[in-house]
Amino acid sequence: MITKRIIPCLDVRNGQVVKGMNFVGLREIASPVELAKQYSESGADELVFYDITASSDGRDLFTDVLAETARNVFIPLTVGGGIRTLADFDRVLKCGADKVSVNSGAIADPSLIGRAAKVYGDQCVVLSVDVKRVDGVYRVFAKGGREDTGLDALEWIKRGVSEGAGEIVLNSIDTDGVKKGFDLEMLRAVSEIVSVPVIASGGAGCIEDFIRLFKTLPKVDAGLAASIFHFGEVRIAELKKEMKRNAIPARIVKE
């Protein structure tokens, strides 16, 4: 049975991990290198590194901090932020990334997904989608959740998968940082229309939120969170033990 993945997320701005609520009110909390080390050693299944202002600033991702982070982790590393060209894919992969996450760059040029998949393989291309409800419709936002693209999220996700995206990260802006649970309604809508892995992001506040996620939506492959892991509100080893107690397949690291 395929195990469900637990994925900490490092939202990085100016070389420091930051966190806010509903994509605003960001504050610095730690070094990405130190946090990455901790997660790699504590049983995380993968790690996500987002340079969250690269796209909105119109600049390249900070590769020095990324390379140092990659040197200190021994689990799969997904990297995103400012990915606009195949050259950007090449650059971050050479820094140690295992997968590359595209968001605003793919919205600007949807062909980037297919071109990258042909060069690096579907498994390397992760489509990250920031979604918010607008007048009852799931709408895609770009540039770190700052810009309403007008795109229907479900149609955009279906297109991304057909282009070659091998994985979807669904970021619910509505639940981001609120800690009231994952956006199960939005996740259900997405998991029903794609056959590739779906990663839930936005809203986790406690261990029970992960248990509810995997029990309610068995098609969802992974749960991603940030602050609850960063501040020790949820410890990954304890979360994995609770998953096992609830018959949810998980990779358990021996202590």
Which key terms come to mind for this protein?
single chain; 255 residues; alpha/beta; TIM Barrel; 8-stranded parallel beta barrel; 11 helices; 36% helix; 28% strand
Structure commentary:
This protein has a single domain, classed as TIM Barrel, CATH 3.20.20.70. Helix 1 runs parallel beside helix 3. A hairpin with a 2-residue loop joins strand 2 and strand 3 (24-30). The model has no long low-confidence stretch (mean pLDDT 90). The chain contains 11 helices and 12 strands. The chain is α/β, with parallel strands linked by helices and 255 residues long. Helix content is 36%, strand content 28%. It starts with a strand and ends in a 10-residue tail after the last helix. Strands 1-4-5-6-7-10-11-12 form an 8-stranded parallel beta barrel, surrounded by 6 helices. It has helices spanning 32-42, 54-57, 63-71, 86-94, 104-108, 111-120, 153-163, 184-191, 207-216, 227-230, 236-245, and strands spanning 5-13, 16-21, 24-30, 47-51, 77-80, 99-102, 125-134, 137-142, 147-152, 167-172, 198-201, 222-225.
Short description:
The protein is of the alpha/beta class. The chain is 36% helix and 28% strand. The chain has one domain (5-245): TIM Barrel (Alpha-Beta Barrel).
The CATH architecture classification is: Alpha-Beta Barrel
The order of strands across the largest sheet is: 1-4-5-6-7-10-11-12
The topology string of helices and strands comes to EEEHEHHEHEHHEEEHEHEHEHH
Q: Name the poorly predicted regions.
A: none
pLDDT averaged over residues: 90
What do we call the CATH homologous superfamily?
Aldolase class I
Gross morphology is globular
Structure class = alpha/beta
The biggest beta sheet is recorded as:
8 strands, parallel, barrel
At the fold tier of CATH, the topology name is TIM Barrel
* Terminal Cα span: 23 Å
Radius of gyration: 17 Å
